[in-house]
Amino acid sequence: MLFFQKNAIKFLLIFVLFLSQKPIESFSQQKFTSSQGEIINFPATTITSLLQPRQDGEVIFNTNFGVTGESGKLRCPSGWEQFFAVGYPQYIEIEIIPHRSPFGTSCLQLPVQRGNVAIFSPRTEIQSGLTYTGFAYVLASGLKNNRMFISISLLDADGKILKTGISETVVHSEGWFPLATESLTADVPEAHSIAIGLHLVSTSRQDLSGQVEFSIAAIREEPTIRFQNDRDWQIYTNPLEITIRGEIYGTASNENRARLELQNVYGVPLASRPLIENSRKLNQPELFDEISNATLPLASESQKSTFFPPEWEKEQENESQKKTQIVSTEKSLEKQDVRRYEFYWKPLITEPGFYTVTLSAPSSETTFSFRSDKKTQSMSFVLLKPYGTLSSGDFGWSLPEETTIDECSRLKPLLAASGISRLKIPIWLSEQTPESVWQKYMKFCEWLNDHRIEPIGVLSVPPAEVINLWKHPQTSKTGTIQTSAQTTTAETLFPVLASRDFSKAGDVFSLPSAMWLPSMETTVFRLGMVIPEWQLGREQDLSLTDFSELNAMLEQIHSRWNQQSLDTSLGLVWDWVAPFPQFFQTKEVSKNNQPPETTETSGDFLALDNEQTLTADDLTYYLDATRDFPVKRYVSLPPLDRQRYSLETRITDLVGRMIAAKEYEADAIFIPHPFDPNFGLFDHRGMPDSLFLPWRTTSLMISGKTPMGSIHLPNQSENHLFNGLSDMVMMVRNNTPTEESLILGKDCKICDVWGKEISPMVRNAVQTVPVSTLPIFVTRLQPDIARIRQNCFLEESNIPSRYDRTISNKLYFTNTTEQTLIGRLAFRPPPGIVFKPNEVFLNLASGETLEEGLNIRLTPSAVSGKQMVQMDVTTNLNDARFFTVYQPVNVGGDDISLDLSTRLNRNNELEVYQSFRNEGNEPVSFHCTLYAPERPLQNMTVKNQGFGRNDSMYTLSNGSALIGKPLRVIAREIRGKRTLKYELTAKP
Q1: 3-state class of 574 per DSSP?
Q2: N or C: which end of the chain has fewer CB within 10 A?
C-alpha cells in the first residue's frame, strides 16, 4: 500500500510540473535550402531569450559552455532558450560535459533518439549597418537520418525574427568540425539584437543512436562591404572603362588597414591600394545613423570637384559629432561609431581575362578565430577581346524555363559577347496572350537572327492560362472545353490533372491533344517565321523517352504543322542510352502537302542527354555509334559541379567534351543551364564566373570549323586540328607540362582559355609552344604543313627488336597542296636505328602519293620502347620551305614491353621496379639484366609469362650514390631472337 501511495504522489508531482511548463504548440516553419540541396525546417518565429550586453571586440558573443562550470543534465544552459512544439518535445534533457572538447572546454551534448532539438543563445545587442556571422564547432557520429546545423537570427526589440541564416548540415563530422552560417547584415531599422541557434533535426526517419555535441559557439561582427556594378553582366571590352566602386560600413578599427586588391582567376594578386591612402583620411566619413542617409563617399582631392557637392562637407561637420548608443535592460554600453566610406578605383588592366577585386578589412581579434583573420568581399568581372559576328556556329545555351521575354531582352549584351550561335528559348503562349507580348518575342528573335544566333523555341510548360483552364474549366453550356478538333470533358480528367507534373513533357503530352495542341499551334504559327526549330520538353527532361504513344503524337503534330504550311523542325529531349525513336527513321519529307518524292529525312533533331554526365570518351562512343541515324543530334554538356571539382578539372573536362562533340559531328552543342551557380557559367549573383571565358574562347576558336584530326608533336602532347575559311586552329594540352618546338607557320599565335594571346618564342624559324595541363589554342597555323604532316607516315610503327636482320618498312608521302611539290625528305631516327635510304627525293603533283620502300636496322646501341623518328622536309612551297614531320615508333612492338621506376628506401637502398608486360597471345620467357655504374650485374628471369603483367624488383645498396646516374635493363628472349633495351635515370 505504501508503494502505491509513493508512486501516486510521484505521479501527481510530475503532473503538476507538466501543467506548469510552457505548453507545446504548433508552429509555422520557415524552410531553407542547405548548400547540399536539402530542405531544412527552421521552427521559431520569435526568440525571447535573455538580452545581454555585447562583448568587447569583434566577437560580440562567445561561449564555451563553461570550462569548470556546471555539468550534468539540464533543460538548456543558463540564459539560453529551448524551443518546444510538435516534434520538439519538452522532456528532452541536454547535458553539459566538462573538458570534453580538444580545446579544453566543455561541450553541449544533445540526445539523438528522442526528437528534434533547437536551443537559442541569449540575445546580443548589435549595431545597425554591420554584418554578423555565427560559428560553432560540432561533433557528430553514428547519424544516418538526423542532421545538425547552426543558425543566426536577426531580431527586433520584441524578439521577432527579421532574418535567419543557416550553416551547412552535418551528418558525420569526422572529428570536431567548424560550422559557419551565412552572413546577415543589419540593414533594416527594426534590427535590435541577434541570437545563435544550435539544431538537431530528423529527416524522414529518426535515428535511434548516435552522438551530437557542440563546443564554442560565437557571433562575429564584421564590416559590411558592398560593390556597385557599373554595367550589366560585368563584361568589358575596353580596359579604360573598368571602374571599381562600392561602399564599406565599419568601425575605426578597420578603416586604416582596409585594402582593395586585384587578383587574376587563380587568386594571384596583380595590384592593390589602401582604402585610405597615405595613412590619412582624404575625406572624414560621416558617422552612421541610418543607411538611407549615409551618402558621403571617400575620394581623392582631385575627385572632389566631380564627386562631392560642397554642401556635403558642411553636413559632414554636423554629423561628425553624433554618437550612437544602445541601452539594454541590463547594462549600458557605448559602441564604436559605424562609419561609411565609398571607394573608387580604376586599376590598370591590359590583358583579357577573368578578374576579381577584393576589399579586405583585417580583423583585430587574435584570441578567437574560426576562419581567416579578415573580412573579405569581392566583385568579379571579365575583360574580353571583341570579335566579329560568327558566320556560322555550333555552340549555344538553353535559357531556364522561367525566363520571361523582358529578361531575354536584358540578355542581349551578354548574348552578343558570349560566342554562341544558338539559343533555346522557353516559349509557349496562349491565345489570350496580349499582342504586345507577341511583338516582344518577335523583335527579340529578329534581333537574334540579325546577330547570327539561331533561336530554338522550347515548348516545355503550357501557359498558366491553359493549365488553369484544365484544372478549373471555364466551360460552355455543355460543361466542356471546346477546341476546333475535338471536345474533351474536363470533369472526367480532373482527378488525372491533379496528379500531373506539368513541367514534364511526358505528363503534358500524354493528355488528349485537344488540351495542348491549340495553344502550341498558335505559338508555332505566330512565331514560326523567326523560329525555325521547336523542342518538346525542357532541358534534361527525359520523360518522353518512355512515352508509349510517342510516334502517334509526333505524327499528329507534323500533320497539323504541314496543314498550316509551317516550314519548321521538331525536336525531342532524348536519353543517349535509349533506342532512337522509330518515327525519325521512317518519316520522309513532304512539301506542300504532297507525297514525298525522295527518302531524304527532315531537319528534325534529338536533344541528347543522360542522367549521368557523359565524359569525352562516352560522347565519342555514342556519337560514333549514331553517326548514320537520319536526324540531327544536339548534345547537352552540363559542366561539372563546382562544389566537387577543381577549376582546372572543370575547364579541362568542359573543353575536352566540346572538342569531342565537335570532332564526332554533333550538329549543335549546348550548355543546358548556363545560369546554374553550381553547374553553369555564372555565379550565384548571375555574373560571369571562372568557366565563362574557357567556354567562350573554345567556342570562338572551333565554331563553324571542320575537324581535321591531329598531328604527332615532338613530346606527344594531345592535339586537335580545326580548319576554317580563314584560319586553322590547334588545341593542345598535356598531362605533364612541357614544350613543343616545331615549325607551325610564321604568323601563328598562342591563345589561352582566358583569351590572352601571345606570340610563341622563335629560334631558327622554329616556334616553341609552352604546353600545360590546361588546354591552349594555337591559331593561324600553316594549313599545307599540317596536312602534309598528317599524310606523311611509316607503314608500320612497330619495329621488332631483332638485331640480326634487316626490317622492311615503307614511307607514304602525299602532296596535299594545290601545286606541284619538289624537294626532299631526310630521316633523323633515334640513336641505334638506321634507315636506308636515309634520304628520299620528292617530285609530286597535287594529290599524288609517294610509296618508298625502306630498310631499317637496329644497332647494339638502340633502346626499346616508344621513340620519335624525325623527318626533315625541304620543299619549293612558298609558305612551307622547311618543316619537320614526327613519327612515333615502338621498338620491340606493342606486345612485349618493360616499365621501370626507382625509389630510395629508408635503408638507403635503391629499389628498381620492373613491370614486364605481355599483351600477345603466346607465353614468353625473358632473361633480364640490370646494369648500374660500378655495381655488380643483377639478373632476373621471367618464365612462361602469358597475357598480363609480371612485377619484380632489383635492390642496390648505397642507393643515394646512384641518384642521377643512368641505369640500363636488357631483356633477352629465351629460345628466341628478341632483345629489349631500356634506359632510365635513378631518382629518389
Answers
A1: strand
A2: N
